[in-house]
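--- STAGE predict ---
source: upstream dedup step, 1 unique chain passed
mode: sequence only
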Amino acid sequence: MASDFFLKFDDFHKFESFEDAAERAAHDLRRLGRNSVDLGDGFLRLIDDGMSPSETLASSVSLDLKFKHDDAIISHDFFKVGLSFLDASASQHKIDIKEIVIIKTIDKSSPNLSAVSDGGGGVTTIVTDLPQLEADLKVTGLDFLQLAPGLADQPTESLSPNFNKISVDYKEQGADGQLVGGLGADELKVGADFITLAQNAEQFHIRGLSDALFKYGQDAVALGNDYLALSADFQKISDHFQPQPQPDAVATGGEIKFNQAVLQNSADFIALAGDLKILNADLRAIGGDTLKLSESLETAAHQLLPAVQKG
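--- STAGE serialize ---
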C-alpha cells in the first residue's frame, strides 16, 4: 500500500538553475531582514530625538528639522521593506517546487523507484502552501509601498487603517486561521510541511537531506511566530493612530500627529523595533537554510537519479 513519501528528480540539469534561484532567494530574505531592522531603528531615532530637551526657540526649530529628517527616513524605510517583500516573493517563486522536487507516494511493494506515481497526496501539501505564502508576501509588500509616501503628512484616518492592513498581512503570513493539522495555512504550515518531509526522508538515508529539511521547517515555524508578533505590534500602532481627543492636538481637530503618536506610545514602537530585529535574525537563518537545502538536494540527486527510470 502507498504509505511513504519520495522526492522524485525529473532532470538533474535543473539543479543548476535551482541552485541559482536558491542563492537569489537567500539574498532577498536577508535584505528584507536588514531593511526591517532599519525601519525599527528609524522609530528609535525619532524617539531619541523627541526625548531630547528643547528649552529655546532655536532648539525647538532644530528638533522640528530633526523630526522632518526622521520622518523622511522612516518613509524611505517603509518603501525599502515594501520592495524587499516583493523581491522575496518573486525570488522564492523561481524555486519551482513542482519542477524540481515533487512530493510523491511510493508503493512499498514496488520493485524499484520507477514505481513513483504522479498522484502525490498525503499530509504534505508543500506544492500548494508555498505559492500561498508567496502571494501573501506580495500583498504585504504592496501595502508597505502604499503607506510609504509622505508618511508623516498623511491624515490619521488613513494611517490607522493602513497600519491595520499591515497587521493583517503579517497575521496571514504567519497563520491566517485556516487551520490545517492544527497550524495555519502559511509560514507555520510551510514549516510543518518541511518537518514532515524531513521525517519521511530519513528512511532513504540521504546524507544531510533530512537534517536540511528539518532545519528549514524549524526556522519557518520560528518565522511564522515572528510574523504573528509583528501583527500584534502593528495592530497596537494602528490603534494609537485612531482619531481621539488629545490635549496637544486641538489644532488638528482631535487627530494625533505622526510624531506625537510615536512619542506618546514609545514603548510599543520600541517593542516593534525589537521584534523586527528578531525577524532579521530568523530571516538570515532561513536564508542559510535555503542554500543548505539546495546543496542537500543536489547531493540527493546524485544518489537517486541513476535509480530513477525516466519516461
